[in-house]
Write a structure and sequence with these properties.
231 residues, alpha/beta, 17% strand
Amino acid sequence: MSTTSPIILILGAGPRIGTSVAKAFAAKGYKVALASRKASEVNNTADEIHIQSDLADPSTVAHVFSQVKASLGIPSVVVYNGSAVTANPPNDPLALQLAAFNKDFNINTVSAFVAAQQAAAGFAQLPDSAAKTFIYTGNIMNTAIIPPLLDLGVGKAATAHIIQSAAAAYKDRGYKFYYGDQRKADGAAVYSAIDGDAHAKLYLELAEGKTQGPWQQTFVSGTGYKDFSTA
């Protein structure tokens, strides 16, 4: 189904970041596709669709993209907001059960990789004027260790590498890849103090940007992007 409105797909569309991002892009004229485990099609409208998807199963990701294309069109912005963690004993990270490690890695990295693949394939079919932006919601754990959260750190670090690689490889084609990482003003982790509106503001700016910026988008609520790499 063709449309003149741009489309955003949010995978892992939760009540904080996902909801805020959806509202911000809808206000800019985007049609919105929201994929989550609890999504219900009864909430679908002409401008917003809900797709049930479990990111623990990477094979479902391509189906989500197919549904979005059939219902709305090809998304020019894809936000991957899925995240999972199973806590381990702080002094015994290798005690984590393999089943939990694999499930969380699928959500944090494997499904994100498939989503990036699908996004890039779609970007190739869009006009030059399209945003062609993929954003992964990360955190400080690609650069810092939090002892009881081994599998989350592994997933974030692995996907950060994917994003960094894609940002370099595809920038000449006009595709943009970003790793969003909210921090406190001093560069410390925000932990659970996540600001959905701050994410939405940054993600909209990244989508509206014409060229690839720094792939790792560390940002502070109320300030925006801030480079902590030399701090």
